[in-house]
Specification:
Shape: globular
Low-confidence stretches: 285-301
Bound molecules: NADP nicotinamide-adenine-dinucleotide phosphate
CATH class: Alpha Beta
Distance between the termini: 30 Å
Order of helices and strands: EHEHEHHEHEEHEEHHEHEHHH
Helix content: 25-40%
CATH topology: Rossmann fold
Strand content: 15-25%
């Protein structure tokens, strides 16, 4: 089995990699919580010792607001740390697959969908750092694969770390009776994280370069939110705004490499029955008296 070093193994994507791919590769997690304080030589030493065939680099500071407020800290996490892994991967001959983001497109004025040749226009610190990381990683390691991921989601109920995502925000709003605002001129793909994790297997075999990675989505974010509410059987108050943005991605390049995603709408419908919250609501509708969803205060579901 391939030996794969996983960074960010305690995070949203990384923890699902550890659970989902464990039967298909030997997964070697970077010690949890250590990267925030590790030095470049710590990274080099660990990579040399483990000598992995590949590195799946998911570690990052991915909260855009936090990056805006702490640009130096997030530069280290989002540019320097991935570069250390690129350099270490090169020295042991390992593949590197690292996450970038659809936020690199955020400042573009037209509606897209954008392909990987589109000149980029990130509009925030996080997006600019992701763009810089892409460029500098490829300079060091042209065989590296950089995945521009859409907004990812999972539902509570699996006892894994979870972070803010569209259906989770909708569930919270429904429970707390707080309105949520979405724009009918904001466009982006929203992708089921487990399909993204599954697609890391073909991603490991891609030629080096940048790839759009996630679900395509024709609907605006307001319509997408309504669609999720229908699938989840919930009725939060949704308010419509009209600020404009598009992060829509053309995913043909990844498809040519065997990476297939449902559209955002297909993804929800295909997986709805497996979501614990949907099963609970279905039981309620059938008079089986299931509990109303109450997320616990901590972030592990
Ligand atoms: N989630 C999304 O919707 C989304 C969308 C587009 C792109 N992405 C990208 O996909 C990747 C995975 O995202 P995610 O949602 O899994 O991220 P996450 O849960 O926010 O964090 C991933 C992990 O990064 C590590 N980390 C935290 N602070 C760090 C620091 N200061 N320095 C170095 N490492 C640090 C931690 O790993 P340990 O817990 O193991 O210590 C953390 O669990 C990221 O590159 C993110 O930018 C995510």
């Amino acid at each position: 089995m391939k030996r794969v070093l996983v960074t960010g193994a305690g995070g949203f994507v990384g923890s699902r990699i550890m659970q989902q791919l464990a039967d298909r590769m030997t997964l070697l997690p970077f010690p949890q919580g250590a990267l925030a304080h590790a030095t470049r030589s710590d990274v080099e030493r660990l990579v040399e010792r483990l000598h992995p065939d590949a590195i799946l680099h998911t570690a990052a500071i991915s909260d855009t607001g936090y990056c805006e407020a702490h640009p130096d800290e997030s530069f280290r996490a989002n540019v320097e740390v991935p570069l250390w892994f690129a350099q270490a991967a090169r020295s042991v001959g390992a593949r590197l697959v690292a996450f970038s983001s659809d936020q690199v497109y955020a400042g573009l004025k037209d509606r897209g969908p954008f392909d990987e040749t589109t000149p980029l226009s990130p509009s925030n610190v996080y997006g600019r750092q992701k763009r810089e990381a892409e460029q500098r990683i490829l300079d060091v390691l042209p065989r590296a694969v950089l995945l521009r991921a859409t907004w990812l989601y999972d539902l509570p109920g699996y006892r894994l770390p979870i972070r803010g995502n569209l259906p989770l925000n909708l569930l919270r709003a429904a429970r707390l009776g707080e309105p949520l605002r979405f724009s009918c001129r904001d466009y982006r793909g929203v992708t089921y994280v487990r399909q993204a994790v599954e697609n890391l297997l073909p991603a490991l075999a891609l030629p080096g370069g940048v790839y759009n990675f996630g679900s395509e989505n024709d609907a605006d974010t307001y319509a997408t939110a309504l669609h999720f509410c229908t699938v989840l059987g919930i009725h939060p108050t949704l308010e419509q705004t009209s600020w404009s943005r598009s992060l829509l991605m053309d995913t043909r390049k990844a498809r040519a490499g065997g990476i297939l995603f449902d559209t955002t709408a297909e993804g929800t419908v295909h997986r709805a029955k497996s979501f614990p919250i949907v099963a609970q609501n279905a039981k309620k509708c059938n008079g089986e008296g299931a509990n109303i969803y109450k997320p616990p205060a901590k972030t592990v579901y």
